[in-house]
Request: fold
Amino acid sequence: MARETIKVDPGFSKTVEGLTRLNLDACFQCRKCTNGCPVTFAMDIYPDQVIRLVLLGQKDRVLKCSTIWLCSACETCTTRCPNEVDIAATMDALKEMAAREGVQIPQPKTYAFHRAFLEDIKRRGRMFEGRLMQSYLLNSGELFRKLADGTIKEEISLGLNMFKKGRLPLLPKGIKDKKEIGEILR
Ligand code: SF4
Ligand code: SF4
Reply:
């Protein structure tokens, strides 16, 4: 049987720690993060394993996994960790790293939503639901699929219902200190 070669990047954990300003070494693998995570049923690597693999320098494995894109940023893991390891923030940093390094993202629709959301926040300082959905549908290719199979009607009907209930404004609202949000995201 052919053996898989494991690539190790010895500086990987320090790079992640540099981005997040967190100390991942504090993790002692108790798995409290994983045991509380509501999305583990769909993950290919559990949250505690992501932290372990980062510490072991297994950059390729971590940046290519589905887990970082399936994480819903609910922060349950971060709250449960007895050592104050911010797993949710680590997942975010890994997402950005994967995107910057041009890794093939296993969850392209989630990635399209992630980009649409962040670009909106960067532009206005807050989300504008109308543009977010437009941008997501276009960038994910879902618009053409939905037009072809007719399911676009469901989106239109959902949009109309949200509009009637005042949940879908026609114009975006701004915020004070938009520059600060840009700085935080940078
Ligand atoms: S809860 Fe914290 S210490 Fe325990 S495995 Fe998860 S990251 Fe490590
Ligand atoms: S932040 Fe992500 S990894 Fe942590 S519990 Fe929530 S979904 Fe799971």
Q: What stands out?
A: The chain has two domains: 12-100, 108-185. The pocket of iron/sulfur cluster (ligand 2) is lined by residues 36-37, 39, 47, 71-77, 87-88, 91 (CB under 6 Å). Residues 108-185 form one domain. The radius of gyration is 19 Å.
